[in-house]
Amino acid sequence: MSCLFCKIAEGSIPSTPVYQDELCYAFADLNPQAPVHVLIVPRQHIASLAETTAEDRPLLGHLFWAAGEIARAKGLPAGYRVVVNTGKDGGQTVDHLHLHLVGGRPFGWPPG
Ligand code: AMP
Ligand code: ZN
Predict the structure, then answer these.
(1) How far is the CA of 78 from the centre of ligand 2 (A)?
(2) Which atom of ligand 1 is nearest to 37's Cα?
(3) What are phi and psi of 40, to 5 degrees?
(4) What's the CA angle centered on 29, arms 87 and 33, to 5 degrees?
(5) How many other C-beta atoms can be found within 10 angstroms of the C-beta atom of residue 43?
(6) Which of 56, 109, 101 is closest to 79 using CA atoms?
(7) How does strand 99-103 pair with strand 17-20?
(8) What is the pLDDT of residues 46-103, one digit of tens each?
(9) Are 18 and 26 in contact (CB under 8 A)?
(10) Which contacts qualify for 45-49: CB closer than 8 Å, 24 or more apart?
(11) How far is the CA of 61 from the centre of ligand 2 (A)?
(12) Which residues line ligand 1 (CB under 6 A)?
């Protein structure tokens, strides 16, 4: 498996860990877009949200729970954003499902 985020989650490519458990691994984004920018990935390889199935529902819930836990630990009282870029139009560049947790500054809407 030549997937970048699989290798990061298993530890064969270095990263800065933020949170981990049996289902997911969270680490600092290499090119942060905000003072807090964490990526949360399932340990299981899933290419994108578009590839998820009904079987993945507990895992998807777990990933969002982890995002909330990390945000609470970081202390982001003014709020934050959780983003799942999906496919070409969604701006996804790494084909392993990941949640971006970004915070520490205000964000605009709609996205570009
Ligand atoms: P996306 O564009 O939604 O697919 O997001 C991919 C993210 O992965 C980008 O924010 C990149 O900065 C980040 N990224 C790419 N390679 C690494 C890496 N080796 N370690 C940490 N973050 C990375
Ligand atoms: Zn992968």
Answers:
(1) 32
(2) 10
(3) -115, 120
(4) 80
(5) 15
(6) 101
(7) unpaired
(8) 999 999 999 999 999 999 999 999 999 999 999 999 999 999 999 999 999 999 999 9
(9) yes
(10) 45/1, 45/3, 45/6, 45/96, 46/96, 46/97, 47/95, 47/96, 47/97, 48/86, 48/87, 48/92, 48/95, 48/97, 49/84, 49/86, 49/97
(11) 19
(12) 4, 15, 29-31, 39, 85, 91-94
**Rounded CA separation 47/37 (Å):** 21
Quick check: 75 and 92 in contact, CB under 8 A?
A: no
The count of residues in the chain is 112
Interval between CA 30 and ligand 1 midpoint (Å): 6
Residues 57 and 44: beta-carbon distance below 8 Å = no
Q: Which of left, alpha, beta for 79 (phi over 0: left; psi -120 to 50: alpha)?
A: left
> Quick one: tokens of 63?
């990933």
Q: What is the pTM of this model?
A: 0.98
Q: Are 70 and 37 in contact (CB under 8 A)?
A: no
